[in-house]
Write a structure and sequence with these properties.
The protein contains three helices and ten strands. It is mainly beta. It has a domain of about 90 residues. The strands form three sheets. It has a six-stranded mixed β-sheet with strand order 9-1-6-7-8-10. It has a two-stranded antiparallel ribbon with strand order 2-3. The protein starts with a helix and ends in a 7-residue tail after the last helix.
Length: about 220
């Protein structure tokens, strides 16, 4: 009878672990709700009510937790690398044979102790690499945290389902309030410590991916 509580506890732990493991990667980018308003006080008949104030001399831009902010994606990267290496080395060593009684050592008239060594090596290598990427668009995120210095930690994602696949864009980073325009937008190149991800899920994405066997033959472990 004592084994029953132990079995029930083990099953509950396994279920909780499975639920925690089954969370999708997009949960981290879920929208952050705004902070709750302070508890309402009894009406005193005054015009001003705490928690319902509207600043008259402040732009209506994101500055509180849960506020939305539109990020203008304009990412362009161009990288190029080139390397050339050329080496050459020549060695030549002569070993004249000894002379005995003023005459070299010969066999049938041919000197046998007169030697020489010649060695030549050369290497010529070159490499060239170029890469270019571009990402443009819009994504609206929410303020997840207001840092002590006033900067805003923002994060969010956009999912678009097309046919049998889902395209997603995820953004996370730190924004300065002074960089936010009156239209409540900020350029992506002004987002500090930015993490921008673009990808897809579904049948089309799987069809464009190499199989595990093809990836094995393309890996660095293959000797051919």
């Amino acid at each position: 009878m004592r084994l029953l509580p132990l079995i029930e506890s083990s099953c509950l732990a396994l279920l909780l672990g499975a639920c925690a493991h089954g969370r999708s990667a997009g949960d981290h980018f879920a929208a952050t709700p705004p902070e709750p308003l302070p508890p309402a006080e009894a009406a005193t008949g005054a015009i001003y009510q705490l928690g319902h104030d509207v600043p008259l001399f402040e732009n209506s831009v994101a500055h509180r937790i849960g506020d939305v902010l539109t990020i203008l994606l304009d990412e362009k990267t161009d990288a190029a690398k080139s390397a050339t290496t050329t080496t050459a080395k020549n060695n030549k060593i002569s070993l004249p044979g000894p002379t005995i009684a003023g005459r070299p050592v010969t066999i049938h008239g041919t000197e046998v102790l007169n030697n020489s060594l010649n060695n030549a090596t050369a290497f010529d290598g070159s490499g060239d690499s170029k890469q270019s990427n571009a990402l443009t668009g819009y994504i609206t995120v929410t303020v997840a945290q207001r840092l002590p210095n006033g900067n805003l930690l923002v994060r969010g994602e956009k999912n678009i389902m097309i046919n049998q696949g889902t395209e997603f864009v995820r953004v996370e980073g730190i924004v300065r309030p002074v960089d936010i325009s009156p239209a409540n937008t900020v350029e992506s190149y002004k987002v500090a410590n930015a993490s921008i991800s673009y990808g897809s899920r579904g049948v089309i994405n799987s069809a464009n991916a190499k199989s595990w066997l093809a990836r094995f033959f393309d890996s660095k472990w293959m000797p051919f």
